[in-house]
Amino acid sequence: MMKISVLDAVTLGADLDLSMFEQFGEVRIYPSTAENEFISHVADSEVLILNKLKVGRQNLPACKSVKLICITATGFDNVDLEYCREAGIAVCNVVGYSTQNVAQITVAMVLSLISRLGEYDRAVSDGTYSRGSSANILTPVYHEIFGKKWGIVGYGNIGKQVGKVAEALGCKVVVNKRTPTDDAECVDIDTLCRECDIISVHTPLNDGTRNLINRERIASMKKDAIFVNVARGAVVDEAALAEAVKAGRIGAIGVDVYSKEPFSEDHPYSEIKGFDNVIFTPHMAWGSYEARVRCCEEIVENIKAYLAGEKRCRLV
Question: Model's pTM, two decimal places?
Fold first, then answer.
């Protein structure tokens, strides 16, 4: 029987039953793992299940028993794949478990921002509407999403699902992806940033996408553009985006991911928290109950495949 360590279970939510992993052997569950706890939490485990914890050359050499790392996410930038390859450690991620969920939050952000629902809700909840004499309030001015051009950066499973919903809402969809595709109108990143009314980012973080949405591209966006990042924080120049909001050079933003999570009080975004045209969420766009259950079920299948000598969702 195998020994398994779940190293940052808090990132999966307290409501999940992780006993499904016990079919493989002894399971040790840790809500979180600090740097000085890593070796003791891993101990003699052969399988590590983790999400945000950074592992690689800095801590894995001391843990000779580790044979398999299961990432409870699609992104794998927290795991040093090069070291794992050298050390003969298999690494698996989970693909597709949160597609519907992330698309849902992306569209919810856009709809809320373009309709200015937060401000209208406040007009009722703070008594402004009840104290007035008019049957309706129509300020601030809001707009229809129908007919808008929606640019999608990154056209994997999530980007494609967002595109389907955007088209169903009457938007014209254009995409930017590394390899052009025949099933969507593809444009270069500069054209997308310059011409689109709505821009959502769904690309993984790697050397080619880090700071992809840079200061110059943010400056080129329409003054009333809506920008949403549900990918990785470091894909965007966060300081430049915050500056654009403060200066009124962009219409609205919705952000669920940050270069450092959680972001600190000295982060550029701290200066725009609470703005009417800003929605910040705490990296929750992937995490509906259904998506988290699917994620854990996929981890089970990855472990089964590893034991059977199969390469399912294998990165290494």
Answer: 0.91
